[in-house]
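Q: My collaborator sent me two sequences in one message, no labels, and asked for predicted structures for both. Can we handle them in order? The first one she listed is below.
A: Yes, handling them in the order given. First sequence, followed by its structure tokens:
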Amino acid sequence: MNLSHICDRLSFFQELYRKNRNRQAELFNRFERYLAQYKGDKEIDRSSEAASVVRNITYELVESQVSTQIPAPCAQAKHYTEQNDRNAKAIERLCTQLRDELPFEKLNDQDERYTYIYGGSVWLAEWDNTLLYRGVTGGVRVSCLNPLDFVPEAGVYEIEDMEYCFLRFSTTKNAIIRRFALPESEIPLLSAEGNEDDIVEMIVCFWKDDEGHICQFIYSGDAVLSDVEDYYARKTQVCKRCGKKRLLCHCDTPSLIWASEEEEILTEDIHLEDGRVIPALSPVIKDGFCEETLAPTRLPYYRPHRFPIVIRKNTSEEKSLFGQSDCEFIRPQQQQINKIETRILQKLMRSGITPILPDDAELTLDNSVFGQVIKLRTGDEKERYGVLDTTPSIAQDIQQSERLYEHAKRILGITDTYLGMSDSTAQSGFAKQIQVEQAAGRLDSKRKMKQAAYADLDRILFEFYLAYADEPRPLSYRDAFGKPHHTAFSRYDFLIYDTESDTYTYDDGFLFSVDQNGAIEQQRDALWQKNLENLQAGTLGDPADPATLLHYWQCQERAHYPYARENVEYFQALTEKEQAPLPQDAPAPPERSPETNAKKT
């Protein structure tokens, strides 16, 4: 979008937000209806009478699909070289460490429910230069947002194809003032969120300019909080009069503006992981010839080129940015079950036992429980009295309610085995295992969409560190023997020098996916048992050999078996003691004659 000719940018973005919000009002109404259904709404569609009883099968079936497994990152180079493979491993270790540092367990918990309720979730990644940790500056922040707070460009169904999109946040006035240094004169312009005076609504718009660069505009009510063009470019303050940076400007009245930094000028040599060195001074090349003079080496800054937003779909739906909602497909069954359960309650409330009395019977009543007293006259017979049971049958209602519940489970591909309920259809343990795998396989499409979203998120995180991580980021990992190693992620390792043009470029050509073994590693009980079976079967070596036992406990340590580290240290010390050479001054063992060996045998 070309906004250079628009003077009142605030009005432009306010109208753009309102227009797209209104055009997708039906989508947001459905989202609110799905959320109400998940929470046990009593409303009956196309009926003025609400249900009195809700059997919330929607909540039950959605919660049964929630998975705590977080996909493990996997990166591969498009073209294999030792350097590319080493860089791919650095990317994987970086993303793995970010999984541990960031609250991904909490984010995954939100993401799972958003996806099944609304049909999708929204992930936002941001680079924060205010984060400081052990001598490094800057880091990423990751958020999982409710789809109700995301307003996409209407009529566009892929985030990469959009020209703009909006995010809505609820925050406090103090947070706005502290983050954007808002003057007091503009505080009354902030829009209040609901009836809370201290809570305000903040709208963030990401949009593309004519060159495809990502830009950002933030406002709240009638107050402009931020207006940044070329959002990913590094910014520095320069004087408009002399063209120098703010610290180097000596003008009497400097006119400071924000300008993008395109290159980095080296002041010292940079040593790379593979032993290469990027010199601080490089020969000057003019007209294709190398001159004898040296000049400071200039390195380009990497610039991401995509929105910092990832959409996770539940299952794909035609002409839809989000996927299909589970609430939508089981809503008819939920509504019918609510009607039937209400009817069951009504039958039970209206039922009762009515006494049958002769005309001349004397009946005394009061308001207490069992307060009815029938007085028989002397010589009267009890057979003259009786009861009429008016309790209706609810067997068919219960049967139909369970039948609809089974319909809902079949629609979502959920079986009793998957829910952990009793299921007698599998007679053997192997049949039960096959049944569980088959039930999980029917939901594999949703897992694939989750893996695809995490792969896109890992790419964004990698591009952020490639663009802004000036200092090497320390990383740690364990090798196949369980030994810890320390390495670092450096953006300079991804630089490629072109001898023809005498320029450096960043290699970002990596394929992102998830490690399929990552989910297996989270099933610790199964891994512990499998490692023990491998030891007993001899696949790790002789079970009596201390080296084999060391390998076994190293495998258990990687699977987080309790107290495995102590056993690793024990067998490691035992193995090193057996492999230690004898001292040179130690006497050699005496040689035995064949007769002595025979006697000993």
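Q: And the one she listed second?
A: Here it is, processed independently of the first:
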Amino acid sequence: MITNLHIKNIGIIDDLEINLNQGMNVLTGETGAGKTLIIDSLGIICGERFSKEIIRKGENYSYVELNLYMPQDINSIDGNIVVTREIYANGRNTCKINGRLVTVSELKNFMSNYIEIHGQNDNQQLLDDKMHIQYLDNFIGNQIIHLKQEYGEKYKRYNEIKRELRENYGDEKEKQRKLDLLKYQLNEIQEAKLKTGEEEKLEEKRKLIMNSEKIAQNLSEADEAMGENTIDVIGTAIRALEKISSIDKKYEETLLNLKSTYYEIQEISRDISCYLEDIEFDEQEREDTEMRLDAIYNLKRKYGNNIEEILNYSEEIEKEIRKIENVEEYNNKLKKEQQELENIMNKIAQEISEIRKEYAYKLNEKINQELIDLEMQNAKINIKVDYKINEFFEDGKDKVSIFVKTNIGENESELSKIASGGERSRIMLAIKKVLAEVDRMPVMIFDEIDTGISGRAAKAVASKLKSISQKHQILCISHLAAVAALADNNYFISKKVQNDRTSTSVKLLNEEEVLQEIARIASGEINEVTLKHANELRKHIA
């Protein structure tokens, strides 16, 4: 059970602490006082998502702390459990269980064993076929668990095989389409006969071709300047220095340097002459270079950023082609395993379906009895189990749907098409009441599940909540006097303005205050008549 809830900086809640007790705890108060924020806080501590907008204005974090006491609980924990969650404006979360840091996912999984929250959204879930199968399976309990586990293992492998077959081109048309595409790509690359470094050389050649006229003109000028006259002049200088080189060492060194320059100039002159001879390009050579570069650019656009990447992709294509051409044998093994799994799954699913049909009949009887108690004497629930021969689902081959007939002489129809909001609330409560008998969930929270209900139906709803509280701690937000009257513990939620800030407060009511609150809820006024009525309602508390 929850023993204490501490909330800070959530909406208009500044710093709120609530000590809760076993049995049926009912929270009442004026609209906008903060009751829903308390439920939101419980959702946060149970690992639900949150919006940063929920953080109190002017603060940079919110904090929720929950104390649970679980003697010999389902997880072999005996004693107190302290769970905390801090949420910061920058989106950071800090979650702890008994001081140990945990992820939000771990927190959610842990708290799902202890607290179940039922809000007005549950009435919407009641219209979701996916939830119907969960209601039925929860009612069946242990008898179906091992079968669902066995089926689930096979179903997981079954989907793995289906995915692998898709990836391995198990479909013949897809396989041939992919082969055709890969072979076309491979042929296109191979026909190009690309060579590593080829593009760079072509780019250099293209640059020369584009500047050939300019290059030829300047090479001619350089060749003319470096002609025989220049070399002859240096040769004359060398011969002159040779005549005096023996006189002084410095003349000898200068002679050596000049001879070196002479040989270098001769080499440079020959190079320039060769460049000049090679600079001639015809138009065909220019067109061939441009076409080859265009072909390379086209392949780069499709298969890689450079020739090396294109050649690597070509190797990958060859491997993929060999894989596809040789995958048929492997796929045949997968298909055989798939067929074997289908046979096993069909057998398990048939057994699950038979159990579901048997228990659907029992669940119908129990829910319909609860509906009679909830002032829906003429309503009949019919949970139908439809076995789908050609389909496999995560939980078997059944589609489970809830049908209802609310009045005598009418045809039954799907719940979403026939029941009003108030009727759905009572149907949901009836289902929860039946499931609570087999449910080990310690704490059940109801957030205005009695919306749209009044009169005798309200008393019936209160009675059901009271009945559930015999085996579960109940925390209930309600606007019904009948519900407040049957509470073991009544809490009044109010708000006050202090220093230009609004904040929420909570008070555990004594018996006199409980009667006054019941009177206020029932008629909006507290007087002798309404207090007498409150006393009458209160006498029914168990």
